[in-house]
Amino acid sequence: MKYTTKIIINKPVLDCFSLLEDHSNIKYWQEGLESYEHISGDLGEIGSKIKLNYVFGKRQMSLTETITGKEKGKVIHFNFDTSGMHNIQENYFEALDDNTTKWVSTNHFAPTKFKSHLMLTLMPKAFKKQSKKYLNDFKKFAENETLVIK
Q1: Most exposed of 11, 89, 107, 114 (fewest Cβ within 10 Å)?
Q2: Mean predicted confidence (pLDDT) in 2-21
Q3: CA 8 – CA 139 distance, rounded (Å)
Q4: d(CA 135, CA 74)
């Protein structure tokens, strides 16, 4: 399944990009993130890997993030891998003016297990809704320093 999510953020493009690439900020706009740990590579650079640990209610999930492409202020691409699912996420940033940024995020989910394939087939809106929520929460964080953590 492949889809694109877009958002306009009232913040300069380089500010948005810096907030996004700083892993210490993830907890402020990704609800459910409990922790992350650096696995390999130069943190924040192409090829680097981190493990992200989430808790959603009683369900725990860990995934590995790999940076696959990066051009400061313009693009940052990731692969996310977890048991049963591979996600390719391509993020593009465009300065609409000095204080407005357009963020376009394209996600391609590829199930690696039958259960994941079934979940993707039966609940595609849930994936899209979660992606949109993260972009909206990032926007709130970037513009107003509104945090999703308790």
Answers
A1: 114
A2: 96
A3: 8
A4: 16
Residue 146 has pLDDT above 80, yes or no: no
Task: Tell me the C-alpha distance between 72 and 23, whole Å.
Answer: 15
Q: Where are the alpha helices (DSSP H) in 4-123?
A: 13-21, 26-29, 114-122
Task: Measure the N-to-C terminal CA separation of the chain; round to a whole number of Å.
Answer: 33
Question: Between the CA of residue 114 and those of 60, 85, 128, 133, 137, what are the distances in Å?
Answer: 20, 10, 20, 26, 31
Sign of CA dihedral 135, 137, 141, 144: positive
66-72: long-range contacts, CB 8 A cutoff, minimum separation 24:
67/41, 70/21, 70/45, 70/46, 72/14, 72/17
pTM of the full predicted structure? 0.90
Phi, psi at 58, each rounded to 5°: -95, -5
* CB 21, CB 76: distance < 8 Å: yes
Say how far apart CA 121 and CA 115 lie, in whole Å: 10
